[in-house]
Amino acid sequence: MTSAYVHGYHPRESERLRDQAGTLVELLHSDTSYPAGSTVLEAGCGVGAQTVTLARNSPGARITSVDISADSLKEAKAKVDAAGFTNVQFRQADIFALPFDPESFDHVFVCFVLEHLQRPAEALLALKKLLKPGGSITVIEGDHGSTYFHPDSPAARGAIQCLVKLQQAAGGNALIGRQLYPLLVEAGFDAVHVSPRMVYVDSSRPDLADGFTRKTFTAMIKGIRGSAISSGLIEPESFDAGVDDLYRTTESDGVFCYTFFKGVGERQ
Amino acid sequence: MTSAYVHGYHPRESERLRDQAGTLVELLHSDTSYPAGSTVLEAGCGVGAQTVTLARNSPGARITSVDISADSLKEAKAKVDAAGFTNVQFRQADIFALPFDPESFDHVFVCFVLEHLQRPAEALLALKKLLKPGGSITVIEGDHGSTYFHPDSPAARGAIQCLVKLQQAAGGNALIGRQLYPLLVEAGFDAVHVSPRMVYVDSSRPDLADGFTRKTFTAMIKGIRGSAISSGLIEPESFDAGVDDLYRTTESDGVFCYTFFKGVGERQ
């Protein structure tokens, strides 16, 4: 879900409600802005899909974006450079062995990372140590089990379930969104607050149908076709029927729902 | 889901966001208020669970609440009288044969009704005829397929699925929430807008855990135990394990999610 955002969607009437945010960026990021001069660690920046938004929303903050992959970092840096932001530095490191002193950062930001980790609770503990007392952590994760749609389709649900199982087999957890609250509490964060960010798509929102349902979610499911089939999780015909039925939800009478979760906590 | 509201919950910090509305009433009703002097038809008021809120939020509107059951109407009237509201009149009638002239009402309100009807689209068409041109319809429905939780539990999902199947066997549709947009469009309403209203419950929200997860949702599932078992849908042990697992989601590390949908449309 790292390239998950939708450009330029504006509902016809002015909407103050967040569940009708025009873009995924707005839905997930609009309430994250760090003060000028504060230090922010982005743990697991990947190819920088969120880094540009972070830098834009907190132009005076000093952001350090870390990833384990040198290739991803290179891509992230190119994105940030192209967008003209100079408040981000990049560093290659493992989230479980970050090269920073304890209490180095005012804030930590983690987006679409915990879902891929075998030991997310341990990662949160490690990140907590890097926070100054009074500092905050913000975690955003999806939850593939939050997906439902109209017309309903067992084939589409089966194809999504393949991703859940593959991620589980790889040590990750595609249902981690709903678990953010207990994970943050268990890691000892204080004042933990989790809010769901539901993406609701019907045909009055064609840009979300295209940008989210088709090009983000369904594209992600299509991307695991080979591994789902070679793992014996599903027959090709069933998988393809499921993907077709996901596309079907973007027709004029279709509806698609997915929920992200955003959790914040403080280090005491 | 007709007695589905939770009293007096106030999160510790002030929240402007609707997905963190303190009560189910606030979540579902806060943006429905009809002008003084306008005429409002509540179609399918049942025992009046929503009628009191309607009357409170639109004190100057003239509300007509209709139900097919004389017993339910009696109960609804007692509730409204006890709350001291005088702007509601009650009338016994079938939603498919309402005793009103065409274009009689400025607004129509329908809550937790379509899910029980064999022909919801037809009901919407009938209601549209009763609206004056420029009048509005507001429809609120749940969607049991929107339910997910932590810890996840196949037994709990199985128990919920029994309700979905029983409602289907009775001609209803427990997954109707996600379909409000196409239903309203198909009935010919204009300017249709649907918004999801997600109830997110973790242990920082103990009143919602008690009032919604335990006493509304799980109580509703428990209520179909006899018919689910006698219909051969499930074994008693599996059903009871499912109910236990739903209660389990209200423990300190548990999370429970459910989404209502609210749709509005206009008659041109």
Note down, in words, how this protein is organized.
The structure is a homodimer of 268-residue chains. The first copy, chain A, has 268 residues and is α/β, with parallel strands linked by helices. Chain A contains nine helices and seven strands. Chain A has helices at residues 24-29, 51-57, 70-82, 120-130, 154-169, 180-186, 206-222, 225-230, 236-248, and strands spanning 39-43, 62-67, 88-92, 105-111, 131-150, 190-201, 255-266. In chain A, strand 1, helix 2 and strand 2 form a beta-alpha-beta unit. In chain A, helix 5 (154-169) crosses helix 9. The radius of gyration of chain A is 19 Å and the shape is globular. The A-B interface holds A 13, 17-20, 143, 145-146, 148-150, 152, 175, 178-179, 181-182, 185-186, 192-196, 198, 200, 202-204, 252-255, 257, 259 and B 13, 17-20, 143, 145-146, 148-150, 152, 175, 178-179, 181-182, 185-186, 192-196, 198, 200, 202-204, 252-255, 257, 259.
